[in-house]
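pasting for ref
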Amino acid sequence: MNDPWLTVPGEQPQGTGTLAVCFAPTGAHGSTFAGWHGRLPEDTTLAFVAPPGRGTRIDEEHVTDMAVYADAVAAGIRELLGGRRLVLIGVSLGALLAYETCRRLLDARVPVTRLCAVAGQCPGDFDGRGEDVTVEDARAFVAGTGLTDPELLADPEFEEVLLPPVIADLQLAARYDGRRGAVPQVHLRAVWATDDPHVPEVTVRRWAEWTSGECSLTSVEGGHYAHQENPAAVISACLDGLPGTRPSRRSVLGAGATAVASTVLGLGAVASAAPAARAAGATGTATVPYDGDPTDPVGLAVAMIRQNTSNPGDGAVTLPLARMLQGIFGAAGVGTEIVPTPKDGNVHFFARIPGRGPATKKPLVLLGHSDVVPAVGDRWETDPFAGEIRDGKLYGRGSLDMKGVNAAFVAALLRHVREGTSFDRDIVFWSDCDEEQGPYGARWFLTEHPGRVAAGAVITEGGWVLNQRDGSTPMIASLTCNDKRSLLLRLETSSYATHTSKPFSGQAVIRLGEVLEQLGQWRAHIRPNALSRRYFAELAEATTDRHFAQALREMLDARTDRQRDRAGESVVRLSETPELHNAMLRTTLAFTAARSGYYPSIVPGTATAEFRAAFLPGAEDPGRTVAELRSLIGSRATLSVVGNPGESEQQALDRLRGYLATPDSDHDTDVFRAWQSAVRRTHPGVRATACQFEAVTSAVPFREQNVPVYGMYPFTVNRDMLKRMHGTDEHIGVQALRQGTETVYQLLAGLRSKD
């Protein structure tokens, strides 16, 4: 080609495939990409920008104006491109040059398939008011960034060649105002190097603000010049996932586990390269790589538990766990993505297995959550984050809720990957970061990234596998199709404050205790909804306990509240899991906090407590329940509804009514039937039924979009295990986890491609 601004080295394919145009870092030229030869995908043409003042153009005048630079490169690309897809790759300062060139190409209606910013600051970091650059500035930059060997820099002749391009590029950056002009709509891939001391991850994340299209964050091993230190990984990070692109054999072999990526959240979203163990990041927690068998759910669950992802209420730090998962899936050749939230270290993790079925089948999402509730305030017999196995039980915070389920999802999915299974739709594993508490959970992601996860169905936490009264024979398995929803209520009593030497009757704390005692005795009517009735009808057929079966049938046949309450109380009393079945039959109250007092010699004038009322869809109206509770306690205390900030009581109640009105997920689907078939294979003779979940999950925003969501804990549980969920010495059975993973495996097997 004749354009002096672009160089196409060697013999490379012409006219078809991809044109990858590379922009060098500060002071460098095309030779910085010498290690890329032979590593590019087979149908990719490499071109690099050759600016004046260096390389073959050393006698020409340097360009220090970004607009002039970008205009010239854009013109050269238009001449060279032909019918190929275009990828712009900029390293360090080159990221800004690529960005401005992209703007001009899009303005000229030249499509850009992808813009890659590698180890570069984003445009918003530059305001055009930088000072003039001196020779000393250039020397300091070269020495500080390791651009060349210090001994060469000490050579006056070498310095005479090296420093002028550095000065020119630093001046170009000093005069650049990235905030001018419209933000382009382009798929932007921001790449950070794990050991880069100059452009850390938090800086690279800001690139998300500089495209109105999709932005994905990717990591590679190496320092600021990772494109030279680890070329295969950088090439993979920039070029993998392009439609129709085949990686070169050398690229795949050279990049190892970090190289092979596939589409994650729609066209072009990237897999972040699998990181090795590295120093602690901003969260203070080091990433620990997993070196066990990825199809072993027990080993996976232990490793997940050992990642302390406690959620104090405003979101957990899940990045180290996400990086571990990234390494596990990356080693299997599965594409992944880590999506940050506004809280540092708080991330969503995705892995996707592309399907081969008809385009009409939308993805199945296996939705877990990385965060766990804290393990403080109660004494454990084991370290809650040690993942200790004792007497056939795996102990640890999150073992049940829900890292054990996550481990079953991952192990079953990767077993299929190892066997070369093709599914009839994409299968997406998503680990949410704020399910327990916090603002950046599944609803936030679906709102901020609409269409990124176009789910056809979702499987998350929910239904249980219960044993007969003998404690060892499986009896019934349930897949939940709706959740209860809860309302936070606050109770306050008051009297007057005084000196502790003069106590009196009617103290606020005593009044609070009396009212709490009364509320603790309150029972709502037994009112199973349609899902609960379906479950309990199946349970009546499944149980071998004839007294329990009789009570179940009497409850279901009752025609009055009195008959139903009496029979329902018998059901709860005879159940091996009474707390679970009680919650599936009525509105419940759970008391979570009590506060009073502020000084040891003062009797406090007020005392407060908080509790949650949990409602079954289609049963009690929350407004009537609040009114009933107020009537019960009378004037002895004030009961208030705790809504969202700025929300009135009526607005909070109406919002809850909206949640409760969300329809049940349809159980006449291929996913539901695949689960039933899987249960028959792994638990012969066990009834598999739709069910009402007794708790709240991340399902509601999906169900609001008419996406069916099903809940499962695929392993058998007992009363003790259920009582320890969110509690002390949380645990699951090791053998039950293995059997539950087999159920997930068989469920996925039912979705194999027919091709």
